[in-house]
Design a protein that fits this description.
CATH class of the largest domain: Alpha Beta
Number of strands: 18
Strand content: 35-45%
Number of domains: 2
Shape: globular
CATH architecture of the largest domain: Roll
Radius of gyration: 18 Å
Order of helices and strands: EEHEEEHEEEEHEEHHEEEHEEEE
Number of helices: 6
Structural class: alpha+beta
CATH topology of the largest domain: Diaminopimelate Epimerase, Chain A, domain 1
Length: 295
């Protein structure tokens, strides 16, 4: 029976059971895509990361939700980086370091800073943002129980991709976010008829010390709401900078507090609003499980 070392990591938090959990499975070079998908369904988390060797980067990882493989994701990247360091596979003795991680969208840079492996912060540079299809508000509002006057008037409803295409909807306040009523059949129809993976609904108002707060929605059989979404936080950062929703290119993003899994990321948008080069999204992580997968 094949066995694989594994860890479960909570990303974008320093507290166990906060942030967003991700299972990280090591030594998956010979594991089939079908088996990876089955394991991701077994883990039943937002994503599971499968780590293997890379021919041109330091490591390669593939990310699967319970339903499908996705090209780039944020919290699995933070979780995978933490797991590599915590397990000793990626040497880090404190200070500053970096490594290249190969994903399905290509290699990305991950920077590591901190006094030790346990307290390190990991920052990923996401792909150059693409500003894609714009929706009329009436095309999407019914899926979330929102009204047009709850949206910000100074930006569109638009799909943005920094590696994974996600629908961005900016609302006026956290009070609006609380009122979201997801209509799952309508949302499934919207998603299957459009070219985006998931939806990030946010406002430029924090819960604790943040500048933004967000809720993130996918469709069954994946978990319907995500505690903290690193890739969409990058897309949101690009969207905010492009449309001038904040007047500074660095900010703190918050998510997951109402789900009992508070998470926080530091975001930096690199480039001018009309020529964004990358979005850096970073945060800490903590190990909550370590063991062996037997399949």
């Amino acid at each position: 029976m094949p066995t694989y070392p594994m860890m479960q990591i909570d990303a974008f938090t320093t507290e166990p059971l906060g942030g967003n959990p991700c299972a990280v499975i090591f030594d998956c070079d010979a594991m089939s895509t079908e088996t990876m998908q089955q394991v991701a369904r077994e883990m039943n988390l937002s994503e599971t990361s499968f780590v293997m060797k890379s021919q041109f980067a330091d490591f390669r990882a593939r990310y699967f939700t319970p339903a499908e493989e996705i090209p780039l994701a944020g919290h699995p990247t933070i979780a995978t980086s933490h797991a590599l360091v915590a397990s000793g596979r990626l040497p880090f003795a404190g200070g500053e370091s970096s490594y290249m991680l190969e994903l399905n969208v290509g290699p990305i840079l991950v920077e590591i800073r901190g006094e030790s492996a346990k307290t390190a912060t990991f920052t990923m540079s996401q792909k150059k943002p693409e500003f894609l299809h714009k929706f009329e508000p009436e095309e999407v509002l019914d899926s979330f129980g929102l009204k047009e006057d709850q949206l910000r008037e100074d930006c569109p409803v638009q799909v943005v991709s920094t590696g994974t295409p996600q629908l961005m909807i900016a609302v006026k306040s956290t009070d609006v976010l609380k009122k979201i009523q997801l209509d799952i059949p309508r949302y499934i129809t919207l998603r299957t008829s459009s070219k985006f993976f998931s939806t990030h609904i946010f406002c430029t108002q924090g819960i604790e010390n943040g500048h933004t707060f967000a809720r993130h929605f996918v469709t069954p059989p994946d978990l319907i709401e995500d505690p903290f979404t690193g890739s969409a936080t990058g897309g949101m950062g690009a969207f905010i900078w492009r449309y001038g929703l904040l007047n500074h290119n660095e900010f703190i993003a918050e998510q997951g507090h109402w789900m009992g899994r508070p998470g926080q990321a530091q975001v930096e948008v690199v480039g001018t609003p009309n020529a964004i080069e990358t979005v850096k999204v970073g945060g800490p992580a903590v190990t909550v499980l370590q063991g062996e997968l037997r399949i």
